[in-house]
Amino acid sequence: MKSLYIVIMGGGNIGYYLSKALLNEGHEVLIIEKDIRACERLEDELGSCCMRGDGCETAVQSEAGLNRADVLIATTSQDEDNLVACQVAKYKFKVPRTIALVNNPNNEKTFKNLGVDATIAVTNAILEHVEQQIPAHPLIHLLTMSGKMEEVVEMTIMKDSPALGKTIGQLRLPADTTIALLLRDSERPRIPDAEMVIKENDRIIALTTVDCEKIVQKTLLG
Amino acid sequence: MQSVDMSGTESLKSKKFIVIMGCGRVGGKLASMFDAAGHKVTVLDLDSYSFRRLPPTFNGTALIGNGTDEEMLRKAGIEEADAFIALTQGDNRNVMAAQIAKQIFKVPRVICRIYDPLRKDIYEQLGLESISPTEVFADLLFNRLEKP
Questions:
Q1: Fold classified for A5-121
Q2: What secondary structure, in 3-state letters, does B3-55 show?
Q3: Which ipTM was obtained for this model?
Protein backbone atom coordinates (compact mmCIF):
# COMPACT_ATOMS: atom_id res chain seq x y z
CA MET A 1 0.00 0.00 0.00
CA LYS A 2 1.18 3.48 -0.85
CA SER A 3 2.01 5.60 2.17
CA LEU A 4 0.14 8.89 2.18
CA TYR A 5 0.94 12.27 3.68
CA ILE A 6 -2.12 13.09 5.78
CA VAL A 7 -2.59 16.40 7.58
CA ILE A 8 -5.10 16.52 10.42
CA MET A 9 -6.40 19.82 11.67
CA GLY A 10 -7.42 19.72 15.31
CA GLY A 11 -5.70 17.64 17.99
CA GLY A 12 -8.76 16.83 20.06
CA ASN A 13 -9.95 13.31 20.75
CA ILE A 14 -10.89 12.58 17.16
CA GLY A 15 -7.66 14.04 15.79
CA TYR A 16 -5.64 12.04 18.30
CA TYR A 17 -7.21 8.63 17.73
CA LEU A 18 -7.28 9.21 13.99
CA SER A 19 -3.55 10.03 13.94
CA LYS A 20 -2.74 7.02 16.03
CA ALA A 21 -4.61 4.70 13.68
CA LEU A 22 -3.16 6.28 10.54
CA LEU A 23 0.40 6.21 11.91
CA ASN A 24 -0.08 2.51 12.69
CA GLU A 25 -1.08 1.94 9.08
CA GLY A 26 2.25 3.42 8.04
CA HIS A 27 1.16 6.82 6.83
CA GLU A 28 2.99 10.08 7.41
CA VAL A 29 0.78 12.19 9.69
CA LEU A 30 0.95 15.80 10.84
CA ILE A 31 -1.50 17.32 13.31
CA ILE A 32 -2.06 21.08 13.31
CA GLU A 33 -3.27 22.22 16.72
CA LYS A 34 -3.76 25.72 18.18
CA ASP A 35 -3.30 24.89 21.85
CA ILE A 36 0.32 24.48 22.96
CA ARG A 37 -0.48 22.12 25.84
CA ALA A 38 -2.51 19.86 23.56
CA CYS A 39 0.48 19.87 21.19
CA GLU A 40 2.86 18.82 23.95
CA ARG A 41 0.57 15.99 25.05
CA LEU A 42 0.31 14.71 21.47
CA GLU A 43 4.08 14.85 20.96
CA ASP A 44 4.74 13.04 24.24
CA GLU A 45 2.61 10.20 23.09
CA LEU A 46 2.96 10.05 19.32
CA GLY A 47 6.42 11.52 18.72
CA SER A 48 7.07 14.64 16.67
CA CYS A 49 3.96 14.78 14.57
CA CYS A 50 2.37 17.99 15.77
CA MET A 51 2.64 21.58 14.65
CA ARG A 52 1.27 24.47 16.62
CA GLY A 53 -0.86 26.92 14.69
CA ASP A 54 -4.20 27.86 13.19
CA GLY A 55 -4.87 25.36 10.42
CA CYS A 56 -7.08 27.85 8.58
CA GLU A 57 -4.15 30.17 7.93
CA THR A 58 -2.36 30.04 4.61
CA ALA A 59 1.04 30.57 6.23
CA VAL A 60 0.50 27.65 8.60
CA GLN A 61 -0.71 25.35 5.83
CA SER A 62 2.27 26.37 3.73
CA GLU A 63 4.69 25.56 6.57
CA ALA A 64 2.89 22.26 7.12
CA GLY A 65 3.67 21.32 3.53
CA LEU A 66 0.08 21.09 2.36
CA ASN A 67 1.28 21.39 -1.24
CA ARG A 68 2.53 17.79 -1.01
CA ALA A 69 -0.31 16.47 1.17
CA ASP A 70 -2.60 13.74 -0.16
CA VAL A 71 -5.40 14.33 2.31
CA LEU A 72 -6.50 17.03 4.75
CA ILE A 73 -8.90 16.02 7.51
CA ALA A 74 -10.46 18.87 9.53
CA THR A 75 -11.68 17.58 12.88
CA THR A 76 -12.38 20.63 15.07
CA SER A 77 -15.68 21.24 16.81
CA GLN A 78 -16.25 24.41 14.79
CA ASP A 79 -17.85 23.72 11.42
CA GLU A 80 -16.82 27.03 9.88
CA ASP A 81 -13.17 26.41 10.78
CA ASN A 82 -13.34 22.96 9.22
CA LEU A 83 -14.85 24.43 6.05
CA VAL A 84 -12.22 27.15 5.67
CA ALA A 85 -9.33 24.76 6.36
CA CYS A 86 -10.62 22.44 3.63
CA GLN A 87 -11.16 25.26 1.15
CA VAL A 88 -7.72 26.80 1.71
CA ALA A 89 -6.12 23.36 1.31
CA LYS A 90 -8.13 22.58 -1.80
CA TYR A 91 -7.92 25.87 -3.66
CA LYS A 92 -4.58 27.25 -2.47
CA PHE A 93 -2.54 24.07 -2.13
CA LYS A 94 -4.44 21.78 -4.52
CA VAL A 95 -4.82 19.00 -1.94
CA PRO A 96 -6.57 16.18 -3.85
CA ARG A 97 -8.87 15.10 -1.05
CA THR A 98 -10.34 17.16 1.78
CA ILE A 99 -12.52 15.67 4.50
CA ALA A 100 -14.45 17.68 7.08
CA LEU A 101 -16.11 16.73 10.28
CA VAL A 102 -19.59 18.25 10.37
CA ASN A 103 -21.05 18.98 13.79
CA ASN A 104 -24.32 20.62 12.73
CA PRO A 105 -26.12 18.01 10.59
CA ASN A 106 -27.69 20.80 8.49
CA ASN A 107 -24.23 21.73 7.26
CA GLU A 108 -23.55 18.45 5.48
CA LYS A 109 -25.29 19.52 2.29
CA THR A 110 -23.83 23.03 2.52
CA PHE A 111 -20.27 21.72 2.73
CA LYS A 112 -20.70 19.55 -0.34
CA ASN A 113 -22.13 22.50 -2.25
CA LEU A 114 -19.08 24.54 -1.26
CA GLY A 115 -16.50 22.07 -2.52
CA VAL A 116 -15.52 19.86 0.42
CA ASP A 117 -14.89 16.35 -0.98
CA ALA A 118 -16.25 14.32 1.89
CA THR A 119 -18.06 15.08 5.10
CA ILE A 120 -18.54 13.08 8.26
CA ALA A 121 -21.67 14.10 10.09
CA VAL A 122 -21.05 12.93 13.65
CA THR A 123 -24.49 13.82 14.94
CA ASN A 124 -26.20 11.90 12.13
CA ALA A 125 -23.98 8.89 12.66
CA ILE A 126 -24.93 8.68 16.31
CA LEU A 127 -28.58 9.31 15.48
CA GLU A 128 -28.65 6.38 13.04
CA HIS A 129 -27.41 4.06 15.76
CA VAL A 130 -29.94 5.38 18.25
CA GLU A 131 -32.78 4.80 15.76
CA GLN A 132 -31.70 1.20 15.25
CA GLN A 133 -31.72 0.60 18.99
CA ILE A 134 -35.27 1.86 19.43
CA PRO A 135 -37.64 -0.81 18.05
CA ALA A 136 -40.64 1.51 17.84
CA HIS A 137 -38.89 3.97 15.58
CA PRO A 138 -40.90 4.08 12.35
CA LEU A 139 -38.14 5.05 9.94
CA ILE A 140 -34.56 3.91 10.30
CA HIS A 141 -31.67 5.32 8.28
CA LEU A 142 -29.57 2.38 7.21
CA LEU A 143 -27.09 4.00 4.87
CA THR A 144 -26.29 7.28 3.20
CA MET A 145 -24.65 7.03 -0.21
CA SER A 146 -21.38 8.92 -0.16
CA GLY A 147 -21.29 12.06 -2.25
CA LYS A 148 -24.94 11.96 -3.24
CA MET A 149 -27.99 12.83 -1.21
CA GLU A 150 -29.37 9.31 -1.61
CA GLU A 151 -30.08 7.04 1.31
CA VAL A 152 -31.41 3.61 2.22
CA VAL A 153 -34.16 3.55 4.84
CA GLU A 154 -36.14 0.85 6.61
CA MET A 155 -39.78 1.21 7.62
CA THR A 156 -42.00 -1.15 9.59
CA ILE A 157 -45.67 -1.19 8.66
CA MET A 158 -47.91 -0.68 11.72
CA LYS A 159 -51.65 -1.38 11.97
CA ASP A 160 -52.49 2.33 11.46
CA SER A 161 -50.37 2.67 8.33
CA PRO A 162 -52.12 4.22 5.30
CA ALA A 163 -50.30 1.71 3.05
CA LEU A 164 -51.83 -1.32 4.80
CA GLY A 165 -53.78 -3.52 2.35
CA LYS A 166 -52.55 -1.60 -0.70
CA THR A 167 -50.37 -3.11 -3.37
CA ILE A 168 -46.88 -1.75 -3.98
CA GLY A 169 -48.12 -0.44 -7.34
CA GLN A 170 -50.86 1.61 -5.67
CA LEU A 171 -48.42 3.59 -3.53
CA ARG A 172 -47.88 7.11 -4.77
CA LEU A 173 -44.17 7.49 -4.15
CA PRO A 174 -41.82 10.22 -5.42
CA ALA A 175 -40.08 9.39 -8.71
CA ASP A 176 -36.62 8.88 -7.26
CA THR A 177 -37.79 6.40 -4.64
CA THR A 178 -37.53 2.65 -5.13
CA ILE A 179 -38.88 -0.07 -2.86
CA ALA A 180 -35.91 -2.38 -2.85
CA LEU A 181 -36.80 -5.18 -0.46
CA LEU A 182 -39.69 -6.53 1.58
CA LEU A 183 -39.10 -8.60 4.71
CA ARG A 184 -42.05 -10.61 6.08
CA ASP A 185 -41.98 -12.88 9.16
CA SER A 186 -39.49 -15.66 8.58
CA GLU A 187 -39.78 -15.61 4.78
CA ARG A 188 -36.71 -14.84 2.72
CA PRO A 189 -36.33 -11.15 1.87
CA ARG A 190 -37.72 -10.52 -1.59
CA ILE A 191 -37.88 -7.82 -4.21
CA PRO A 192 -41.57 -6.92 -4.24
CA ASP A 193 -43.49 -6.62 -7.50
CA ALA A 194 -46.31 -4.11 -8.14
CA GLU A 195 -49.08 -6.65 -7.22
CA MET A 196 -47.76 -7.51 -3.79
CA VAL A 197 -50.13 -6.49 -0.95
CA ILE A 198 -48.60 -4.78 2.08
CA LYS A 199 -49.38 -6.44 5.44
CA GLU A 200 -48.90 -5.46 9.04
CA ASN A 201 -45.38 -5.93 10.42
CA ASP A 202 -43.86 -5.95 6.93
CA ARG A 203 -40.45 -4.34 6.88
CA ILE A 204 -39.80 -2.32 3.78
CA ILE A 205 -36.35 -1.26 2.66
CA ALA A 206 -36.40 1.66 0.25
CA LEU A 207 -33.87 3.69 -1.68
CA THR A 208 -34.78 7.37 -1.57
CA THR A 209 -33.31 10.86 -1.29
CA VAL A 210 -32.96 13.14 1.71
CA ASP A 211 -35.49 15.52 0.15
CA CYS A 212 -38.12 12.84 -0.50
CA GLU A 213 -37.76 11.06 2.83
CA LYS A 214 -40.65 12.91 4.47
CA ILE A 215 -43.07 12.06 1.62
CA VAL A 216 -42.06 8.40 1.68
CA GLN A 217 -42.55 8.29 5.44
CA LYS A 218 -46.01 9.85 5.09
CA THR A 219 -47.09 7.46 2.33
CA LEU A 220 -46.00 4.31 4.10
CA LEU A 221 -46.33 5.17 7.77
CA GLY A 222 -48.78 8.08 7.94
CA MET B 1 -31.25 72.06 -3.31
CA GLN B 2 -32.02 70.23 -6.51
CA SER B 3 -29.36 67.62 -5.88
CA VAL B 4 -30.83 66.85 -2.44
CA ASP B 5 -34.23 66.20 -4.05
CA MET B 6 -32.66 63.96 -6.66
CA SER B 7 -30.93 61.76 -4.13
CA GLY B 8 -34.13 61.55 -2.10
CA THR B 9 -36.16 60.14 -4.99
CA GLU B 10 -33.25 57.96 -6.04
CA SER B 11 -33.09 56.13 -2.72
CA LEU B 12 -36.86 55.64 -2.63
CA LYS B 13 -36.99 54.35 -6.17
CA SER B 14 -34.36 51.70 -5.50
CA LYS B 15 -35.49 50.39 -2.14
CA LYS B 16 -33.36 47.38 -1.35
CA PHE B 17 -33.63 44.47 1.06
CA ILE B 18 -30.40 44.05 2.96
CA VAL B 19 -29.53 41.20 5.33
CA ILE B 20 -26.71 41.87 7.77
CA MET B 21 -25.12 39.10 9.82
CA GLY B 22 -23.57 40.32 13.08
CA CYS B 23 -24.91 43.24 15.08
CA GLY B 24 -21.64 44.47 16.52
CA ARG B 25 -20.46 48.06 16.28
CA VAL B 26 -20.14 47.99 12.50
CA GLY B 27 -23.17 45.76 11.87
CA GLY B 28 -25.43 47.79 14.16
CA LYS B 29 -24.26 51.08 12.70
CA LEU B 30 -24.66 49.88 9.11
CA ALA B 31 -28.12 48.47 9.81
CA SER B 32 -29.31 51.78 11.21
CA MET B 33 -27.77 53.67 8.28
CA PHE B 34 -29.55 51.55 5.66
CA ASP B 35 -32.76 51.73 7.69
CA ALA B 36 -32.54 55.54 7.90
CA ALA B 37 -31.96 55.67 4.14
CA GLY B 38 -35.31 53.93 3.61
CA HIS B 39 -34.16 50.40 2.85
CA LYS B 40 -35.58 47.20 4.28
CA VAL B 41 -33.09 45.71 6.75
CA THR B 42 -32.84 42.43 8.66
CA VAL B 43 -29.99 42.04 11.11
CA LEU B 44 -28.98 38.67 12.56
CA ASP B 45 -27.01 37.98 15.73
CA LEU B 46 -26.55 35.05 18.09
CA ASP B 47 -26.85 37.30 21.12
CA SER B 48 -29.98 39.38 21.67
CA TYR B 49 -27.96 41.74 23.86
CA SER B 50 -26.12 43.05 20.78
CA PHE B 51 -29.37 44.51 19.45
CA ARG B 52 -29.00 47.25 22.08
CA ARG B 53 -26.80 48.94 19.49
CA LEU B 54 -29.79 49.55 17.21
CA PRO B 55 -31.43 52.94 17.72
CA PRO B 56 -35.01 53.11 19.09
CA THR B 57 -36.11 54.47 15.71
CA PHE B 58 -34.94 51.28 13.90
CA ASN B 59 -37.71 49.99 11.63
CA GLY B 60 -36.00 46.84 10.42
CA THR B 61 -36.05 43.30 11.79
CA ALA B 62 -33.65 42.01 14.44
CA LEU B 63 -33.40 38.23 14.48
CA ILE B 64 -31.61 35.93 16.92
CA GLY B 65 -29.90 33.15 15.05
CA ASN B 66 -26.84 31.67 13.41
CA GLY B 67 -26.16 33.05 9.94
CA THR B 68 -24.11 30.02 8.91
CA ASP B 69 -27.25 27.85 9.06
CA GLU B 70 -29.16 27.68 5.76
CA GLU B 71 -32.47 27.28 7.54
CA MET B 72 -31.86 30.38 9.61
CA LEU B 73 -30.89 32.42 6.56
CA ARG B 74 -34.08 31.31 4.87
CA LYS B 75 -36.04 32.53 7.90
CA ALA B 76 -34.24 35.86 7.62
CA GLY B 77 -35.61 36.15 4.07
CA ILE B 78 -32.31 35.60 2.26
CA GLU B 79 -34.14 34.32 -0.83
CA GLU B 80 -35.55 37.81 -1.45
CA ALA B 81 -32.46 39.76 -0.36
CA ASP B 82 -30.68 42.16 -2.70
CA ALA B 83 -27.57 42.20 -0.58
CA PHE B 84 -25.96 40.18 2.22
CA ILE B 85 -23.16 41.49 4.42
CA ALA B 86 -21.23 39.22 6.80
CA LEU B 87 -19.90 41.16 9.81
CA THR B 88 -19.37 38.79 12.74
CA GLN B 89 -16.13 38.67 14.74
CA GLY B 90 -15.13 35.36 13.13
CA ASP B 91 -13.49 35.41 9.69
CA ASN B 92 -14.45 31.80 9.06
CA ARG B 93 -18.06 32.33 10.06
CA ASN B 94 -18.23 35.31 7.70
CA VAL B 95 -16.66 33.34 4.89
CA MET B 96 -19.04 30.41 5.36
CA ALA B 97 -22.20 32.54 5.56
CA ALA B 98 -21.16 34.71 2.61
CA GLN B 99 -20.55 31.64 0.44
CA ILE B 100 -23.94 30.19 1.38
CA ALA B 101 -25.59 33.51 0.47
CA LYS B 102 -23.75 33.80 -2.83
CA GLN B 103 -23.57 30.23 -4.09
CA ILE B 104 -26.64 28.58 -2.63
CA PHE B 105 -29.11 31.47 -2.39
CA LYS B 106 -27.68 33.48 -5.32
CA VAL B 107 -27.96 36.81 -3.50
CA PRO B 108 -27.00 39.45 -6.13
CA ARG B 109 -24.50 41.30 -3.94
CA VAL B 110 -22.54 39.69 -1.12
CA ILE B 111 -19.80 41.39 0.88
CA CYS B 112 -17.69 39.65 3.50
CA ARG B 113 -15.46 41.04 6.22
CA ILE B 114 -12.22 39.08 6.63
CA TYR B 115 -9.73 40.46 9.18
CA ASP B 116 -6.88 38.23 8.01
CA PRO B 117 -5.45 39.81 4.79
CA LEU B 118 -4.06 36.49 3.50
CA ARG B 119 -7.38 34.73 3.90
CA LYS B 120 -9.05 37.70 2.24
CA ASP B 121 -6.77 37.32 -0.80
CA ILE B 122 -7.72 33.66 -1.24
CA TYR B 123 -11.43 34.29 -1.04
CA GLU B 124 -11.16 37.29 -3.37
CA GLN B 125 -9.52 34.96 -5.88
CA LEU B 126 -12.42 32.56 -5.39
CA GLY B 127 -14.78 35.37 -6.34
CA LEU B 128 -16.03 36.47 -2.93
CA GLU B 129 -16.16 40.26 -2.54
CA SER B 130 -14.23 40.79 0.68
CA ILE B 131 -12.87 43.65 2.73
CA SER B 132 -10.06 43.34 5.25
CA PRO B 133 -10.46 46.08 7.90
CA THR B 134 -6.89 45.29 8.96
CA GLU B 135 -5.55 46.35 5.57
CA VAL B 136 -7.89 49.29 5.19
CA PHE B 137 -7.09 50.72 8.61
CA ALA B 138 -3.33 50.16 8.35
CA ASP B 139 -3.35 51.89 4.94
CA LEU B 140 -5.35 54.75 6.36
CA LEU B 141 -2.96 55.31 9.25
CA PHE B 142 0.07 54.91 7.05
CA ASN B 143 -1.19 57.46 4.53
CA ARG B 144 -2.13 59.95 7.22
CA LEU B 145 1.36 60.00 8.64
CA GLU B 146 3.31 59.42 5.48
CA LYS B 147 1.38 61.72 3.12
CA PRO B 148 -0.08 64.51 5.23
A1: Rossmann fold (3.40.50)
A2: HHHHHHHHHHHCCCEEEEECCCHHHHHHHHHHHHCCCEEEEEECCHHHHHHCC
A3: 0.82
Domain with B6, as residue range(s), is 2-146
Chain A residues whose CB is inside 8 A of the B90 CB are: 80
Q: pTM value?
A: 0.75
The domain covering A134-221 belongs, at the CATH homologous superfamily level, to Regulator of K+ conductance, C-terminal domain (3.30.70.1450)
Contact present, B118 and B135 (Cβ < 8 Å): no
The per-residue pLDDT string of chain A (222 residues; one tens digit each, 9 = 90 and over) reads 689 999 999 999 999 999 999 999 999 999 999 999 999 999 999 988 999 999 999 999 999 999 999 999 999 999 999 999 999 999 999 999 999 999 988 888 889 888 888 888 888 778 777 776 766 667 888 887 766 678 888 888 888 888 888 888 888 888 888 888 988 888 888 888 888 888 888 888 999 888 888 888 888 888
Query: What are B's interface residues with A at a Cβ cutoff of 8 A?
Result: 68-71, 90-93, 95-96, 99-100, 103-104, 116, 118-119, 122, 125-126
CB pairs under 8 A between A and B: 54
Distance to chain A for B135, nearest Cα, Å: 16
